[in-house]
From TrEMBL:
Name under which the protein is recorded: Universal stress protein, UspA
Entry keywords, A to Z: Cytoplasm
Main location: cytoplasm
Pfam family, one: Usp
Highest taxon of the lineage: Bacteria
Cellular compartments annotated: Cytoplasm
Function: Required for resistance to DNA-damaging agents.
One GO CC term on file: cytoplasm
Length: 337
C-alpha cells in the first residue's frame, strides 16, 4: 500500500476479500478495485458465484462439486472476466467458489464463515428508479456484518479518468447521544475513517472527511409563533456550529493519534462541516466534488437482531450515485443465521 506504515497497526489492511460475480452486471470495474486492494494489502481474493435456483440440488451436492458442469461453467466465466482485467491480476492469490441458494444470504454466510474482511460487488442499477443500488444490494448492505463495497459500473470511464479519485468519508461528530450509543457511534466513526484512509492511500486518492450538523430548533425560533430576536437565533446556531466543530476536531485528533500523524501529513484530508439535513447534504456534497467513492456507517445500534439500518443512512444510500463502502459497527447482529 502506498506510504503504508506497517507500525500503524490500526491502519485497516484486509487480509481476505470476497468478490461477488454477477451475471447481470459488468464486473470489470468492481473486480479491478478488488484486485488493486488485494495487491496493495497483500490479501487473498475469492471470486464467488451464487446460483439461486437449482432443480437437482441434492443430487448435485452428493457429487464432487468441482467436477460438475455448473462448476466448470462458472470457472469459464471467471476466467473470461479475469482475462479482461489481466493487467491487474499479477501477484494476487485468487480462489474460486460456487454457492447455492439465495444470493445475499449465501454471501453473508460465506463472508462470516470464511472470516473475510471486505465484500466487493458490482452495483445493480435499477434504471427505472434512477438508483445505483438495486434491492438485492440494499439487502446486502442492511444485513451483512462485514463492510460491503458496491462499485459503480463505469469501467471505460474510470480507465480514462484523468483527475485523481476522490474518497468521501462521512462521520457523525455529534456527542448528543446516550453513553452506550455515543461509544458505538464514535467507534463506527473511527472505523469509517480508518477504511477511507486505507482506500485513499491505496489509490492515491484525495480524501474528504464530512460531518453534517443540524440546528434542530432554528426554523421554529425564527417563525412567527416564537418570534425570537434575530441575533439570539444567530447565536444559537453559531453555538451549535462551534460545539459540532470542536467535537469533530476532537474525533479527528483521536483518529490521527491512533492511525499515526504521518498518515495525516501524507494524505492531507480536507475536513468539511456542513449545516443541514444529512440525508440531503451528503449526496449533494458527493455530487459537488465528483466523489468516486463514499465510505459511511449504516447502523447506530448493536446487539439487536433485526435492527439493520437507520432511516437516515438508508435515505442517503438511495440518493447516492457513487460507489459506496457501507460499514457496520462492531457487535452488529445480522438477522441472517
Amino acid at each position: 500500500m502506498s506510504c503504508n506504515n506497517k507500525d500503524n497497526s490500526l491502519v485497516w489492511l484486509p487480509s481476505k476479500l470476497l468478490f461477488i460475480y454477477s451475471k447481470e452486471n459488468d464486473n470489470r470495474q468492481a473486480l479491478t478495485e478488488a484486485l488493486n486492494m488485494a495487491k496493495n494489502a497483500q490479501a487473498s481474493l475469492t471470486i464467488v458465484t451464487v446460483l439461486e435456483s437449482i432443480l437437482n440440488t441434492e443430487a448435485l451436492m452428493s457429487t464432487d462439486l468441482e467436477d460438475s458442469e455448473l462448476y466448470q461453467s462458472m470457472m469459464a466465466s471467471h476466467r473470461e472476466l479475469l482475462t479482461s482485467v489481466s493487467e491487474f491480476t499479477e501477484d494476487v492469490k485468487i480462489d474460486h467458489k460456487l454457492l447455492l441458494g439465495m444470493p445475499f444470504i449465501e454471501v453473508i454466510k460465506e463472508a462470516r464463515a470464511g472470516n473475510y474482511d471486505l465484500v466487493v460487488k458490482a452495483a445493480d442499477n435499477e434504471g427505472l428508479l434512477n438508483r445505483v443500488f438495486g434491492s438485492a444490494d440494499m439487502r446486502l448492505m442492511r444485513k451483512c456484518p462485514i463492510p460491503v463495497w458496491l462499485v459503480q459500473q463505469d469501467f471505460a470511464q474510470d480507465m480514462d479518468r484523468q483527475k485523481p479519485k476522490i474518497v468521501l468519508a462521512t462521520v457523525d461528530a455529534s456527542e448528543n447521544y446516550p453513553d452506550q450509543e455515543l461509544q458505538t457511534r464514535q467507534d463506527l466513526n473511527l472505523k469509517v475513517i480508518e477504511i477511507a484512509v486505507s482506500i485513499a492511500l491505496a489509490e492515491g486518492a484525495e480524501l474528504h472527511l464530512l460531518s453534517v450538523w443540524h440546528a434542530e430548533y432554528e426554523s421554529g425560533m425564527r417563525g412567527p409563533l416564537v418570534g425570537m430576536a434575530e441575533q439570539d437565533v444567530d447565536k444559537y446556531v453559531d453555538d451549535l456550529k462551534h460545539q459540532h466543530d470542536e467535537s469533530l476536531n476532537r474525533m479527528l485528533a483521536h483518529a490521527y493519534k491512533l492511525l499515526g500523524e504521518d498518515v495525516e501529513q501524507y494524505i492531507k484530508p480536507k475536513v468539511i462541516s456542513l449545516k443541514g439535513a444529512p440525508r440531503k447534504k451528503i449526496a449533494e456534497y458527493a455530487r459537488h466534488i465528483d466523489a468516486s467513492l463514499v465510505v459511511m456507517g449504516t447502523v447506530a445500534r448493536t446487539g439487536i437482531a433485526g435492527f439493520i439500518m437507520g432511516n437516515t443512512a438508508e435515505n442517503i444510500l438511495l440518493q447516492l450515485h457513487q460507489s459506496v463502502i457501507a460499514i457496520k459497527p462492531s457487535g452488529f447482529v445480522s438477522p441472517v443465521a
